[in-house]
């Protein structure tokens, strides 16, 4: 493991392989959660399902106890953008819920999030979820060896702006990841390209657009965790952890390593 550009952590191929194991735990757990989402289920029940899934795969939840966070996932419903604490809230038909999950294997982290609709939702909500996920993939696809972190930011923002009048959170960003869940550098979802640390083989980043149907401004609830839109507009959140390898881009939390999405975007797949 080495360091570059003010503390940015660079992983060896062997360390990336362990991160892939953690990423698969996250990806598999999120698919279990996707299948469990239904009207009437509580976010606490989803949290129990997630913790059981993570531990049954020989991993440890990244979130549980992190800076005092009391659960294994974040479950953020409707106007809650991120960091929602699971509890007694029952999901209702027409809701959307962001499910953010992290896992640790042998000291190395994976982190990803999906936004799931609870049955049919209005077309503008379904479109919001689609745009947010697509923006994440466009951001990942913009990462090239020798480029800069804000190349990702610019790609995320450009895609969202091209799709409609959405709000993009600026106060919350993606991040470096590896031996800790949150490392340098921040990965903003807006910005000009060509800035920030250089993108190199072995750098691992979590890219996570947070997009709203209204404005970009948010408030923090009294629980000191849950972030909500100030205008009450609904939000979506999508996240994957990826790295650059000698042969291309490898999405460590995607079950197929990101091969299908990257290939569709013309990006060399770097998984092994």
Explained architecture:
The protein is an alpha+beta fold and 272 residues long. The protein has one domain: Creatinase/methionine aminopeptidase superfamily (Creatine Amidinohydrolase, Alpha-Beta Complex). Helix content is 29%, strand content 26%. It is built from five helices and 17 strands. The chain has helices at residues 13-36, 43-56, 123-141, 149-163, 259-264; strands spanning 2-4, 8-10, 60-61, 73-77, 80-82, 96-105, 108-117, 167-168, 174-176, 183-187, 204-207, 210-212, 218-220, 227-229, 235-237, 240-245, 248-251. It has a five-stranded antiparallel sheet. Strands 3, 4, 6 and 7 form a four-stranded antiparallel sheet that branches. A three-stranded antiparallel sheet has the order 5-14-13, with no helix packed on it. Strand 16 and strand 17 (248-251) form a beta hairpin. Helix 1 (13-36) runs antiparallel to helix 2. It is globular, with a radius of gyration of 17 Å. The two termini are 19 Å apart. The model has no long low-confidence stretch (mean pLDDT 97).
């Amino acid at each position: 493991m080495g360091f570059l550009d003010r503390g940015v952590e660079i992983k060896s191929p062997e360390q990336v392989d362990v991160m892939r194991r953690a990423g698969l735990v996250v990806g598999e757990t999120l698919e279990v959660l996707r299948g469990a989402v239904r009207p009437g289920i509580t976010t606490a029940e989803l949290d129990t399902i997630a913790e059981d899934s993570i531990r049954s795969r020989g991993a440890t939840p990244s979130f549980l106890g992190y800076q005092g966070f009391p659960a294994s996932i974040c479950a953020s419903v409707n106007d809650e953008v991120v960091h929602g604490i699971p509890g007694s809230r029952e999901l209702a038909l027409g809701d959307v819920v962001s499910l953010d999950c992290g896992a640790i294997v042998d000291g190395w982290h994976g982190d990803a999030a999906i936004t799931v609709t609870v049955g049919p939702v209005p077309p503008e909500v379904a479109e919001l979820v689609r745009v947010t996920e697509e923006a994440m993939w466009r951001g990942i696809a913009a990462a090239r060896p020798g480029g800069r972190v804000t190349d990702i930011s610019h790609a995320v923002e450009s895609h969202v702006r091209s799709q409609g009048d959405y709000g993009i959170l600026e106060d919350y960003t993606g991040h470096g990841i590896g031996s800790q869940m949150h490392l340098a550098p921040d990965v903003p979802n807006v910005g000009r390209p060509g800035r920030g640390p250089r993108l190199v083989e072995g750098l691992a980043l979590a890219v996570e657009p947070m997009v709203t149907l209204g404005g970009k401004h948010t408030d923090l609830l009294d629980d000191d965790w849950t972030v909500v839109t100030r205008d009450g507009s609904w939000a979506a959140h999508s996240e994957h952890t990826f790295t650059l390898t000698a042969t291309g881009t490898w999405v460590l939390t995607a079950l197929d390593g990101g091969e299908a999405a990257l290939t569709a975007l013309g990006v060399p797949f770097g998984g092994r």
